[in-house]
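Figure 2 data, in text form.
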Amino acid sequence: MKKVIKQDDILTLDIVDYGINGEGIAKYKGVVIFIPFAMKGERIEAKITYVKRDFATAKLLKIIEQSSLRKDYPCNRFIKCGGCNLLHVDYGEQLALKRNTLENTLKKSLGEVKVEPCVPSPNTLGYRNKVQLPFGIVNGRAVLGFFRAGTHKIVSITKCFLHGDWLEELIEVVLDFVRKNDISVYDETSHTGLLRHMVARFIDNKLCLVLVTNGDTLPHYRKLIDRLKEKFKDFSLYLSVNQKKTNVILGDKLICLKEGDFQIDILGIKVKLSPLSFLQVNDKVRDMIYKRVIDECRGSDAVIDAYSGVGILGAALVKHGIKEVYNIEIVPEAVKDANALAKENGVSDRIKNILGDVSKELPKLIEKIHSQDKRISIILDPPRKGVDKNAISALTNIPYPINLIYISCNPATLARDLALLTKNDIYAIKSITPCDMFPQTRHVETVVLMSRAKD
C-alpha cells in the first residue's frame, strides 16, 4: 500500500488539537501528525520528519494563520534547548491544555471523569529552585546547557527564564572558573574529562552547588569558592563522584568542599536540606498543595504518609493540628533525616517514621490504628512510576473507612492506579485537581481526593 505521506514532504496543515506533550495535532488523509510548537487553531506549513502507518511527526516551518493565543517569548534558546514546551502559549491556554490533557489521559482508563480547572502558579517565570545542567564543549569552549530534545547534543545557555537571576550569575562564575583554570569537561564517548554536570538549588537566598565529576578531586577549587563568595552570601559546594558509564546524573560518593547552612522554612517547619534531598521545584505551588492536603486531613485522628521522604509534610500536618502521623519510607537515609527533622521541630512525640515497604507496612498500620477506632487519612505521593501494585492491592483489601489523597506528577501512572483503586467500586473519586507546578512545560501535578465508595 502506497504511503499517503512520506518523510520530507512539506504540507499545509490545520492544527485541530494538542497532544500529551503540548504539541499541535493535525490530520491529513487519515494520518495524525504531531507538530511541536504549533498551536490549536493555526494553519501552518510543516516538513514531515518521521512516518509510521497511522501517525507522523513534523517540523514547524511557517505559521500561515496565527492563533491569537500565541505570545512572544523572551528566550533565544527556546525550541532549540528542549527545556520548555509551552513558552509560546498564553498562560491561560497552558492551564486549559493541561486540564484537557489530564482529562483525556484519565478517560482512557476510567471513562468519563470530571477534572477541576488547573490551579495556576503564582509565578510563571523564575519559579524553579533547582537546575541540572550538563557540561559540554561548543566551538572549542567549555559550556553549560541543556541537551537538545531527543539527543545528547549540548545547547549552551547563559541564563534560563524558568529560574531567577541567580542562575545566570552562577553559570558565569562556574564557566569563568572552568575556562581560566583549564578544567576538563566530560566526553561520554571516550569516558574522559572531569566535569559532567552542575546541579544547583537556590532557596531563601541560599545556594547549594554540586559539581558531578568523573574523579574525586577538583583542581583549584578554592579559587571557585572565592569567586562564589563574591556573588552569594550563603552557599555550600560539593562534589558528587560519578565514574560510571551511565545517564544517571549523581554518583554514590559525595565530597563536601565548603559547608553552608541550608536550613529553610516550609509552612513553619525547619528543614535542613542535603544535596541529595528531594524537594519540589516550585516552592509556592508546593505550599499550596500541602495546605490543601492539611485541610483535607482535618478531622482525622491519624494520618499515614505512604511515600514520606524526609518527612516534611508529616511534620507540617502535626504543626497544623493532626495528633498522630505515621511516615513510611523505604530509603534508610531519608528515614534518618526524617527522625532528625521531627526532633528539630519538636514533634517527635507525635510522629513515627517507619523504614519499610509500603505494601507490607501499610496493612499492619491500618489494622493497628483502626483497632483503636480512629479515623484514618492516607497520603500517596509516589515517584513517577506510581504506586507499587502490591501497595494498591493492600489498599483495595482494607475493609475500613479511609480518606485517601493521591498526589501525582505523572498522569499516565495516575490513570493506571486510579483504575485499580476504583475497580469494583472500592474507592470513589471525590475530586481531581491539576496544579501547575511546572509553568511553560507540558508537566502537571495532580491532587486526587478519594474515599472508600461505601463510606
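Caption note: The two ends are 56 Å apart (CA to CA).
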